[in-house]
Amino acid sequence: MPITETMIDAAAGNEIMSLLDGYSGYNQIYIAANDCPCALGVYEWVMMPFGLKNIGATYQRAMNLIFHDLIGKFVQVYIDDIIVGSKQKEDHLYHLKLSFERMRKHGLKMNPLKCAFGVTTGEFLGFVIHQKGIEVDRNKTKAIMETKPPSNKKELQSLLGKVNFLRRFISNLSGKTKVFSPLLRMKNRN
């Protein structure tokens, strides 16, 4: 699986981009014919079903094979989320054309209701990306600010997990949260 921070960094800095979302992503991958027959003859999957342990990695591997020579140039793919980004507006239609040709060749379908074309700002993997860089989605910070103070160990762990999501924007986060370490080590405090 790709490192999300690297992908977010690579997706930022484009003058224009299109955000694409795979339509029922996992169900677009066919299962190998010799893996389909069911011993009991009851039901046979011909497409990858949701819920399998390695399905995310398998889907990502398929996407990497489909877009192998475009990834890192103007395409970023994280499972079923695709960004086609262009440093210059003039190149964007050409980049989209190449991407769509690749999708058509491999029978990959996108969900038109979740796609955004020719935008200057968009959300990718929980962050807002644009030409100038990366920002935190305001809804994420709002959710943290509106969280009630933790009253037990489990709630503290949950809060720290939310804050950790924003670690790249908070200098010395580990130093600032170090005060909670003794509380996290306590036993039988939920």
UniProtKB/TrEMBL annotation:
It comes from Cajanus cajan. The lineage of its organism: Eukaryota, Viridiplantae, Streptophyta, Embryophyta, Tracheophyta. Pfam families: RVT_1. This is Retrovirus-related Pol polyprotein from transposon opus. Residues 1-129 form the Reverse transcriptase domain. Coiled coil: none annotated. PANTHER family: RETROTRANSPOSON, UNCLASSIFIED-LIKE PROTEIN (PTHR24559:SF439), TRANSPOSON TY3-I GAG-POL POLYPROTEIN (PTHR24559).
